[in-house]
Amino acid sequence: MAGTQRWPRGTQGKLALMESTKLKHFHGGLCLDYHKDISRQTAIVVCPAQSRYVIPLQQHIGAAGKVTVEQGQRVLKGQMLATTKKLISAPVHSPVSGTVVEITKHAVPHPSGMEADCIIIENDFQDEWVERKPVAQNYHQMNSHDLRNIVRDAGIVGLGGAVFPAAIKQTEININTLILNGVECEPYITCDDRLMQERAREIISGADIIGHIIKARECIIAIEDNKPEAIAAMQVAINEDNTGFFRVQVIPTLYPSGSEKQLIQIITGKEVPINGLPADIDTLCQNVGTAYAIHKAVFEDEPLISRIVTITGKGIKQPQNMEVAIGTYIADCIEQCGGYNDDASCMIMGGPMMGFTINSDQLPVVKACNCLLVTTSDEIYPANTEAHMPCIRCGRCVEVCPAKLLPQQLYWYASTNNSERAAEYHLFDCIECGCCSYVCPSQIPLVQYYRSAKSEIWALEADRKKSNAARQRHEARLFRLEQQKRERDEKLRIKREMLNKKKGKTEEIEIDAKKAAIAEALARVKKKKETQAITPKNTDHLSAEQERQIKEADRRRQMLKDENHE
Amino acid sequence: MLFRKASSPFISAQASVHSIMYQVLYALIPGTLAAIYFFGWGILINLLIAAIICLLSEAFVLKLRNRPIKASLTDGSALITACLLALALPPLAPWWLTAIASIFAIVIAKQLYGGLGFNVFNPAMVGYIVVMISFPREMTFWVAPLGAVDHWLSFSDTFSIIFSGALPDQSSIDSVTMATPMDTLKTQIALENDIESTRHHKVYGALFNNFGGKGWQWINLLFLLSGLWMIKQKIIDWRIPVSFLLTLLFIANFFAVSDYASYPSALFHLFSGGTMLCAFFIATDPISASTTPKGRWIYGMGIAVLVYCIRTWGGYPDGIAFAIVLMNITVPLLDYYTQPKTYGKSEVE
Question: pLDDT at position A241, please?
């Protein structure tokens, strides 16, 4: 049974490679049972080619790409299938050569089991590549901007699970410290572990490219002390490199050390400011898998069309790490692992702390898919969503929360739908690591409450936005109607005047009247513009608290707007 | 392959409220046994009455509220309330006094607020206060500890006093009861007798031991040890007991040093009355206590200040119940204003 919160005793002795740097401790955290040996005993196996691939257009945080191929078209391996000019986005590529058989909605791995736009490709088994022009060693002479474009065009996203487009993270330059995240703190997952053991040199090379893009002065490779083989392999690669740029930093095993913010705190002792970025404290954090993908993009001009997936759990006949082409059906991967055991009951994408269950194996492997955990009913704790005990405010959740929140208070407000209060208790700082639910003696599914409270607040905000827009539309319509009426009256008046005058003067008058009407209309437009500049608001007689909330909402809205504009 | 739906995290420490409550109950055993040893059958009979009434009234209200009865009855929380009441009430308290306190604790202070997890006040302390205010005479039915007297009141005598009020032949209630050391000191100080002379008084002197009250000091010591065990087991948070005991030690010492004749020593405060029971078993009730780390420090300090004030200058011999309930009132405020700085906050400010 796992204890809680403190770094395990005796870890100090195990930190053989740790240099004199003093590590900091983030608040809380858990020592878990890791079950990593199930899948890390054997080398990475390449999943053989399949006949059909499903490529979702959106496999990253940000906007989905627009399809650049047509149904029936032949595509080559590595060919771009969808892209967009929007800033926060990443293109997707064909993992094989073959034919686009359909562009349609298809079920994708998502907690809700939803369908999304996908491109379905029939493999022709020719393995014919698009023309590749790797820049290879020439990257040393390239500027950050061009290198970043290579990373972007290769569709590379954070492969630790967050799938944030990598190129965007690398926009800031002159960042002092590049932290390479090889922590892999979630139980069961070993894809980064195996990758570091087998492809350390490529990881180092990819990290060097990132370092070149952001002009970093040092690169720290953080690895938990439960991966001695990976630590040794990375150390060997660093010794070969011999530039002094890289350093392995062994950190004690403690969940969630692999979370970006927590890792930065361990290494630098600093906290990433709220609403800020790691760049604000002179760091950039990238996963080792991402570095590997960048190496492939630069040295082989190979976009992100495959990744290492840990397929593990007691429900799998032969657990292993597999290099899987993006778009491969999960069922095909499972088949390569010998299939399910009889008592397999649950499939989780990601780890047991932060992953989500999927309701079918007829889904494609996506860029975010670091692990497929197939469990038996005795292996994981049964989902206790029905009846849980009431919260007794014991505060164990406070002790383990790495974001230093008060989960028990958050629960109180989230469960009573008091979203304003929940936001006040920093609901949005919750990283959903699951530590609080893990220790809760009342077995309350806390994270689930927070997730639904968050989405409720988002929905409210969207509603408010919509009703604001509707109100503005309505007001604009009233204004327009009134204007039309006035114009009609004006015309009638002029007509009547014209009838009263003699025919000879009519033309002159008509021109004058027209000019006057135009001038008047211009003045009205100007006035209208002025009034519209001041957005109407019901902001009289509000308390300071309400004003603050409105300001907060406005700020968030502005942030959203800015994002959309980008 | 079933593809069961669930929500993360899928693993759990598998702790339970049930196991926490029962460990607290186990931790109460040594001190309770000591209390029975020193004060006789009365404590045990009180405990049985309180336990039966607490469980029955809990079951009754749960039935009225259409809540699952078995799960709540077996969580152990009602038994803890019963145990705390039995230890706080005088050993010769009539049965109906214990029953009223138990009913009030469970029905009013716990279930009417919504049951386990929702009670604003510590149920046992509310029950205690109700009978303390309503029946002050019966609340003085303490007996002299073993050591001050040669033997316990017999079981049948104790039983008949508690259930029928019938005293043994040729004795009055005053001859079988005796004030607690804390009460005695208070009365004597009010009569301007200094502490040293009270401690060596031919009658009252028997109530005192080297540092606490006779019997009381051992009971307190056992509760202290069980409390430390609970902290080690992470059943209770260490902040509240530490801040409570340190503050009490500091204040008591401050006054005792300034005038040792009229203010009892810090050790006497720590090892008499319900100090240790309060520190580890009452103040640490997580439901009614503050829940933030900083709030818990303040909560413990507040209780200590109030306990000392009520003991020294108030109208009641021991002030724990009032101190706890008064501090319970401040909890929402404490929790709100002592929120920890969340990750990333400290860098901005």
Answer: 85
Tell me whether residues B344 and A276 touch, CB distance under 8 A.
yes
Give the minimum alpha-carbon distance from B292 to chain A in angstroms, rounded to a whole number.
7
Helices (H) and strands (E) in chain B, counts: 17, 0
Q: How many CB pairs under 8 A join A and B?
A: 187
- The helix or strand, by DSSP H or E, that contains position B243, with its residue range, turns out to be helix B239-258
Judgement on whether residues A126 and A259 belong to the same structural domain of the protein: no
Residue A16 has pLDDT above 50, yes or no: no
How far is CA A526 from each of CA A84, A87, A469, A533, rounded to the nearest angstrom? 37, 35, 22, 11
Q: Domain total for chain B? A: 2
Q: What is the count of structural domains for chain A? A: 4
Q: Note the pLDDT of residue A433.
A: 93
Question: Which of B137, B152, B177 marks a domain boundary?
Answer: B177
Residue B138 has what pLDDT?
87
Both tokens assigned to A65: 């790409």
Could you read off the pLDDT of A126-144 as tens digits, one per residue?
A: 999 999 999 888 888 888 8
Domain CATH code at residue A481: 1.10.1060
Work out the minimum CA distance from A71 to partner chain B, whole angstroms: 33
Which residues in chain B are contacts of A392 at CB distance < 8 A?
17, 20, 116-117, 286-287
DSSP A273: P
Q: Mean pLDDT score of chain A, rounded to an integer? A: 87
What's the confidence (pLDDT) of residue A15?
Answer: 42
| A342, A343, A393: best to mutate for the B interface, most B CBs within 10 A | A393
Q: Is residue B274 part of a domain?
A: yes
Please give the helix or strand (H or E) that residue A204 lies within, else none. helix A200-214
Report ipTM for this prediction.
0.87
pLDDT value of residue A11: 41
- Chain B environment of A406 (Cβ under 8 Å): 291-292, 335, 339-340
Find the CB nearest A398 among B17, B293, B348: B293
Mutation site, A334, A394, A424, A454, interface B, largest B CB count within 10 A? A394
Regarding whether A268 and A163 lie in a shared domain, the answer is yes
Beta carbons of A35 and A188 less than 8 angstroms apart: yes
Chain B residue numbers with beta carbons less than 8 Å from the beta carbon of A448 are 7
CB contact under 8 A, A347 and B3: yes
Q: Is A220 helix (H, G, I), strand (E, B) or coil?
A: strand
Which residues in A lie closer than 8 A to residue B340 (C-beta atoms)? 398, 404-406
Shortest distance, CA A446 to any CA of chain B (angstroms): 9
Could you say which of A376, A407, A431 is where a domain stops?
Answer: A376
Per the structure, the complete domain to which residue A86 belongs is given by 45-131+305-376
Same domain? For B160 and B190 the reply is no
Give the pLDDT score at B286.
93
Residue A24 domain-assigned (yes or no): yes
Chain B residues closer than 8 Å to A353 by CB: 8-11
> Could you tell me which chain A residue has the CA closest to the CA of B18?
A441
Look at residue B230 and tell me if it is in a domain.
yes
Q: Which of A259, A271, A363 has the highest number of chain B CBs within 10 A, making it the mutation to test binding with B?
A: A271
| Spatial distance between the Cα atoms of A180 and A158, rounded to a whole number of angstroms | 11
Q: Report the greatest alpha carbon distance in chain A.
A: 110
Q: Note down the domain range covering B42.
A: 16-177
Name chain A contacts of B349, Cβ cutoff 8 Å.
Answer: none
Average pLDDT per block of 10 residues along chain B, 349 residues long: 84 87 95 93 94 95 89 89 94 94 96 92 96 90 79 84 80 76 81 77 75 85 96 93 97 91 87 92 94 95 95 85 96 92 69
Burial (0-12, 13-18, 19+ Cβ within 10 Å), A526: exposed
pLDDT at A263: 94
- The answer to whether the beta carbons of residues B93 and B41 sit under 8 Å apart is no
Would B41 be classed as within a structural domain? yes
Backbone phi and psi for residue A397, each to the nearest 5 degrees, phi listed first: -65, -35
Q: What is the rounded CA–CA span in Å between residue B40 and residue B272?
A: 18
Q: Does a structural domain hold residue A324?
A: yes
Q: What is the pLDDT of residues A245-260, one digit of tens each?
A: 999 999 999 999 999 9
CATH number of the domain residue A295 falls in: 3.40.50.11540
Q: Based on the domain organization, do A347 and A281 belong to the same domain?
A: no
Kindly state whether residue A310 falls inside one of the protein's structural domains: yes
Minimum-distance CB partner of A274 among B8, B12, B348: B348
A385 has a pLDDT exceeding 70: no
pLDDT of A501 strictly over 80: no
CB contact under 8 A, A440 and B15: yes
